[in-house]
Amino acid sequence: MKLGELVTQTARRFNAARLHYGHGTDNARDEAAYLVLRGLDLPFHADAGIPVSDADLRRVESLVGRRIRERIPTAYLLKEAWLDGLPFYVDRRVIVPRSHIAGLLHAWPGRVRRALDMCCGSGCLSVLAARAFPLAKVDAVDVSGASLAVAERNRRMHRLEHRLELVRSDLFARLRGRRYDLILTNPPYVPQAAMRRLPREYRYEPGLALGAGDDGMDLVARILEAAPAHLYPGGAVLCEIGDNRAALERRYPRLPVTWPVPQVFLYRPRSGAVSRTPARPGRAR
Ligand SMILES: C[S@@+](CC[C@H](N)C(=O)[O-])C[C@H]1O[C@@H](n2cnc3c(N)ncnc32)[C@H](O)[C@@H]1O
Fold this sequence. Notes:
Blueprint: H1 3-16, H2 28-39, H3 54-69, H4 74-78, E1 81-83, E2 86-88, E3 114-118, H5 124-132, E4 137-142, H6 145-157, E5 164-168, E6 180-185, H7 192-196, H8 218-226, E7 231-240, H9 245-251, E8 257-261, E9 264-267
Parallel strand pairs: 3-4, 3-6, 4-5, 6-7
Antiparallel strand pairs: 1-2, 7-9, 8-9
């Protein structure tokens, strides 16, 4: 069998098994190419006409079998995820990198000397920020020591020990006195009810990385309230919140935000503090 046929056959099996995607791919064909090519240590541009050996077929079969039966995300099977063209080590201690913030860093207008990746997980966004802003020092914060061990591995892999500092902290608790030009954050933001409906694939990810209270805004609210004190004048917060725009607007109807993409808002504090003005007078939320 040739490589291209193996990818096509694998995609057909994924379709028949009605898998869920969203961990780096959004369809059966891309997921099959990812699993087959990277499962065989081949580059994404490998020639579809390469013959596949019996040993390689067995290797792919074992990965495909687990992907279908156990619904394990391909990134965890391979211990590798790709974001914005870069590879990252991943395992179940961190969520699989897929943040929309990744695509916004190249075109960032303005100088960044200090950046913070709040809730860094695998450190994927910290690494991308360090590469997008080659003169910047980047702090990467997570409350989970297990996540930071993975971030440490990615920091080493991308040779950023000299510019990327890992900090174990409950949000800003251990960042007293530190200020930034840019705070980027992809915090947990899945509402409680949605947590209960997540497809099996997502249950392999750490609950701490996903769930964020009734409306998904628990962590976002804490970040927004603390962030102004950690920004230089003119600094900004780039925050991913998925489909929670309405929930954000209910909590902060007058927050001056813009939406570079539908899942990410940009907030530049004017007066140095977030006003949690109720949506309607007299209503707490
Ligand atoms: C959605 S994941 C994002 C990981 C990474 N930034 C990415 O985009 O792949 C959220 C991360 O927030 C961390 N986290 C949860 N609560 C936290 C807290 N109170 N303080 C700091 N980090 C927290 C979790 O451990 C998890 O790694």
